[in-house]
Amino acid sequence: MNRPSPSRATSSIDARSHRRGDDYLVSEADRRSFAERGYITLPDVMREDELQAIEAAYDRFTSGSVPGMGRDLCDMSGTYGDPFANFALVNAMLPRRYEPALQGNLFERLSRAISCQLLGDDMELDYDQFLSKKPDCPRAAFAMHQDMGYWPVGTPDTRTATCSLAITDSLLSNGCIRFVPGSHLPRTLVRHRPKGSGDRSDSHTLEIDLPTDVEIVPQEVRRGSITVHDEWVVHGSAGNPSPQWRKTYVIAYRSRATVAYERSIGFTHSHNDTVNWKTALDLL
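Above: the chain's sequence. Below: its structure in token form.
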């Protein structure tokens, strides 16, 4: 596992970051970049001791030790029927639902402050997610997609800030996130399709085909730092051929009215939900 020493983490957060207690101050330059490119990277959001407290809970989920999750524990590079031992990209949805002690943790407080600075004070936690790429696993790739491809279409207010915390260093060598800058600007869905067999009941994962000349920009993120991305921006990640795990803690924020609308139609972001709303696939 790639961990900075506590002394290095403490000195860097004091010297370079915009962290102030339970708040993180987003610069005007970062706000402009988020609007123009569809994503940003913010350094040193959390300290080493704070990460260790979260990582203990994180590992309970991604080791398969939390019971009763159903399809909320799945392999985002495989199918729902795969045995846990064969998972490559371990996805634990809605961990704060299954372990309420996570609710209100420091990353929740910091990421909400960041989302409000980017998109307005009405931003509210929509869902959380733990994503782990097993070591020595080139197939632990997350297909290129837009988050809006997974969510109900027709929502009037789609403002979203998805905050992804690097629990371990996220590098080119272990499959860091990659973005197509500016791909969010048209605010339209690219054609998506179910990965693999083409049957969405077999796998939650969607994928898209990109032109060969499109610009794809990787974002390396050190442990304790985060990326924040827009709901329309095209993104994904490669597999993990390295000998280390790649661990990411995701929290997404949407407007209070949008979250209320989602819940009113039964959409909770759980893979156990019965789909009764239109998605990107209904537009094909």
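Helices lie at 6-16, 28-37, 48-62, 95-98, 106-119, 256-264.
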